[in-house]
Amino acid sequence: PALLVGLLAGAWVDRLARRPLMIVADLGRALILFSIPLAAFGGLLRMELVYLAALVTSILGIFFDVAYQSYLPGLVGREAVVEGNSNLSASASVAEFAGFSLGGWLVQLFTAPVAVLIDAFSFVVSALTLGLIRTREPRFAAQQASEQAPDIRREVADGLRAVARHPLLRASAAAVLLREIAMGMYGAQVVLFMSQGLGFNPGVLGMIWAVGGLASFLGAVMAPYAARWLGAGRAMALGLAGYAGFILLVPLAQGATLLSALLLIAQQFGDGLYVVYEVNQVSLQQEVTDERLLGRVNASIRFLALGGGLLGALVGGWLGELLGVRGVLLLGGCGTLLAALRLGFSPLWGYAGQKS
């Protein structure tokens, strides 16, 4: 989906009102996810339906995520985007903790279709809460479609050029691509390693991953302070480097032992450093990009991220056959560290960010 609609999503986000687009994406995902438990309970569930649901929900998710990142500056102002992203990441971290805590046990106790049913309801709640927002969007974001005839190719190209020509965005995009290739490799193997390689059951893994939600919450709270103390660019580079160091702990685990569990739990604390990086990375895009191009710039960088993740997953699966799962995890951690170095040796190292 990222390759099919990622760049197009940015053009449409810059043409349409962003909040209604997010609501439609939420309700669409809820409907698609409801089909999974209904088919399962009726004895009609097939892998083809799961693939189709994953495809459509991913497409809608891309539109939502691009609109989500582009909507914030109009709500809080550019001078407060770091704090705004910090608050959003903090709430997401609480949800991550609750979701992982419950998700593994729901699958283990009540089967996967019930977990998907609850997931579908969560998108309905999201749409309802978005409907409660009363702040008006900047008028041009909703009026562009009526002011000129659509020229999607030109608009997509404008977004790509905006990223390529801005030295800070260009450095950030390069690091995003490297990071996502590495994390795609890592992500393709890490659950297999934890569940089958080490032997932990889903309930235990869910509780371990929930620790990442707590760490992410702390990272979200610290992100604005890190930007003020270190500068936004240094906070990005050092946060990503620290995260790389923590994920390199996972390949050291051996078997379903207490030591292995402690290593996996320790790795989850790296999520907090990743959130410090991510909050400042998204805020950078919102701070330096013209509002009229923000959807397309966000979509262009997200296109690189999702495309890199797809490439990394394919390469990770292939390398897993050659090097083994543990070897791929090591490569993923080292690749993430390389992305951090790319930030450190770029103009971003000296970027202080906008002060509120």
Secondary-structure map:
Layout: H1 2-13, H2 18-41, H3 47-76, H4 81-110, H5 112-131, H6 139-147, H7 152-165, H8 167-197, H9 202-230, H10 232-247, H11 258-288, H12 294-323, H13 325-344
Helix pairs in contact: 1-3, 1-7, 1-12, 2-3, 2-5, 3-12, 4-5, 4-9, 4-11, 7-8, 7-12, 8-12, 8-13, 9-10, 9-11, 10-11, 10-13, 12-13
Please explain how this structure is put together.
This protein has helices spanning 2-13, 18-41, 47-76, 81-110, 112-131, 139-147, 152-165, 167-197, 202-230, 232-247, 258-288, 294-323, 325-344. It has 356 residues and is mainly α. The mean pLDDT is 88.
Q: State the helical fraction.
A: over 70%
Would you list the SSEs in sequence order as H and E?
HHHHHHHHHHHHH
Distance between the termini: 36 Å
On the 0-100 scale, what is the average pLDDT? 88
* Count of individual beta strands: 0
Number of helices: 13
Which overall shape is indicated by the principal axes computed on the Cα atoms?
A: globular
Largest sheet: none
In terms of structural class, how would the helical and strand content be classed?
A: mainly alpha
Strand content: under 5%
Rounded radius of gyration (Å): 20 Å
Which residues sit in consecutive blocks of at least 5 with pLDDT less than 50? none
